[in-house]
Amino acid sequence: MKHNPNARTKAFGGLYAITPDEADTAELLRKVRLVLMGGARLLQYRNKAADSALRQEQAGVLRGLTRKYAAMLIVNDEVALAQHVEADGVHLGGADGSVAEARAALGSDKIIGVSCYNRLSLASEAVLQGADYVAFGSFFSSAVKPEAVSATPDFLRQARFELAVPIVTIGGITPQNAVGLLESGADALAVISAVFAVPDIEGAAREFSNLFEQG
């Protein structure tokens, strides 16, 4: 399947940190700074518990921080918020609008990712519509989304064979179980708890980042 990624997407890979629901913007900034110091170059801003004003505030300060660390900022779900803070792109879930609508709003130089769960047909359609990357999971049990559908390494290998865009894996990923996902074709590891819900945030992020340096 042919795909012509933009310059940003060509560098898309590594630790993909997804922010936790954190009401304290200063605390969120502290945690994210540690993740970026640990080597993360992809950050998704996601806060399902915040109102629109807080999301706008937090996304704005994270935009400044990610620029300082030469990291990409992807906004979860909200195309308008991604536009407002001049994020690098948006990540769409199953009910978050179409790739075409997001592309029309954001333009050709922004990244659009799509959650495809364990459905290869959904991923193929997203790529046809112009998605820059697709995300699959959950590969392991997740405290954040315990009800999530399951994906397997065999499925990941099939997806890697059929798709020419970067593949993001998510769901209960740790530095220990991540190795098999990378061997099966994952380009990026999306994590929340494994980096943000630990005492040594920077150290956890570095452990994930080192997996890619070793590869």
Walkthrough of the structure:
By secondary structure, the protein is an alpha/beta fold. Helix content is 43%, strand content 18%. The chain has one domain: Alpha-Beta Barrel (TIM Barrel). It has ten helices and eight strands. Helix 7 links the parallel strand 6 and strand 7. Helix 2 (25-37) runs parallel beside helix 3 and helix 2 (25-37) packs parallel to helix 10. The model has no long low-confidence stretch (mean pLDDT 93).
Give the N-to-C terminal Cα separation. Answer: 25 Å
**Rg (CA only):** 16 Å
- The CATH topology, please? TIM Barrel
Helix content: 40-55%
Q: Indicate the CATH architecture.
A: Alpha-Beta Barrel
Q: How many H/I helices?
A: 10
Number of self-contained structural domains: 1
Order of helices and strands: HEHEHEHEHEHEHEHEHH
The percent range for strand residues is 15-25%
* Principal-axes shape call: globular
Detail the poorly predicted runs.
Answer: none
